[in-house]
Amino acid sequence: MTRSTLRIGAGAGFSGDRIEPALDLIEHGDLDYLAFECLAERTIGLAQAARAADPQAGFDPLLEARMRRALPLAAPRGVRIVTNMGAANTLGAARKVTEIARELGLSGYRTAAVTGDDVLDLVLAGDYPLIDRPGTSRDLGDAIVSANAYLGAQGIVMALEQGADTVITGRVCDPALFLGPLAHELDWSFDDHAMMGQGTVIGHLLECAGQVCGGYFADPGVKDVPDLARLGFPYADVCRDGVAILGKLAGSGGRIDTATVKEQLLYEILDPAAYLQADVSADFRDVRIEQVGPDRVRVSGGMGRAAPQKLKVSIAYHDGYVGEGQISYAGPGAAARGRLAIEIIRERLKIIGAQVEELRCDLIGMDAVDRRGAGGDPADVRVRIAARTSCAKSATAIGAEVEALYTNGPMGGGGVTRSVRQVLAVASTLIARELVAPRVHLEIA
Amino acid sequence: MAEILRDIAHVRTGDKGDISQIAVFALRDADYLRVLAAVTPERVAAHLPGLRPRLIRRYELPALAAVNLVLEGALQGGVTRSLSLDAHGKTLGAQLLDLPLLPE
User: Fold this and answer.
1) Closest residue on chain B to A427 (Cα)
2) What is the DSSP string of A333-347?
3) Domain Acyclic terpene utilisation N-terminal spans what residues (chain A) (predicted)?
């Protein structure tokens, strides 16, 4: 039987998010569903690399920690969980959750893996134009690590229809983690573009968890947010007609009001008339946001049109190394000594013949993130040298040269740090949706 | 003292690939037209001379008293490639807050 309203909460806005607010929501939030969004753009590439080293790995490293604490609270209350923590090993993640459920004595607990997003073989076999830069997938050659299509919510609905208590996906459009349960429970048709649009608005508002509750918002004296150390995560009460009321637990930190909701509505949106998803092209222009009580905001008016013909695909690929070194200067003339240090490093890199493809030299505290050219002498500056290189040896040389400034550079340099990292970059392409189909695999504890 | 954007608006910054996106919201609906006048692509580009985006698109959202600025090619290749300390460009919106307002 279709219910008249559904309460769905957000348990994580990124892979490393706080765990307690999700547990609080399960325990005290009277939820029907909780969704954990844990997959950033290059996470799957990193996970694929982890899986190459260990076939049992490749899902979210915090999956076990989260599920060990969430399942004992969620299972007895009938709170169903949806998450993209499957990353590059969705089946392995479902097996791990089932193993945890068995250990917890949750006999019969059903965990579904939704697969089908991995299109690496298709991409390697073809030649796909990149959409965010010139060139094609073939130009990336054997540097490609992973290729995953952004699936919609249909695979999640299929899993829920099979009675899954927890649904694990790999790459899906983030709002789909919420749209799936909404469509399943409130009987929304995927052909109903308006409902898909409004469901996408709701999912988009929830997917970053704490951000709609006043996270990433505080500006003391102008936009104050109470108790960010105990920031609550949000939930939405969604009616069959799509109207939603956002809320958070009484006593949790943060605030939900028209300002926090508006900011989150447009977060990472390009054209608000066409937010492209696998299930819909959502239109945010006429969304209405109304305060209906303390920390209660009503959201309606999301619209949509037919989804694009093609699905977006993220390709992760090895892109050389980045070597970095930092050193600080303070006192009168600090900025001048920082600039001298940069001059010395530029010269040194030429002398030693470091193979540098791109070099960036910053004075942290002056121009490292500032793009206004604000100027002014700060109390201290930190020189930061970062270089892209094709080999690890040249990357290592960056930090070594900065470290040598201790005894060979300007007066009073301190606190050197250095690092080398392998770069996993992401490019995007499009793939015909007929080539991609979600599949559901059910594991029962 | 000269008024700045921070007096009448709040901002939220996001990123997508090599695109930075700064949404600007009037604190009071009555100030929406002043916000629109302040954040033209030309004025935004001039206020952030170190950014040099390829293109700035602007989407007006009167129902939300908001305007969305989409700065293409602003992130040195985007978060997965950029050598910038703030590869996401998360600090950019805040840097727009001292943009001077035009006189009423």
Assistant:
1) B17
2) THHHHHHHHHHHHHH
3) 6-442
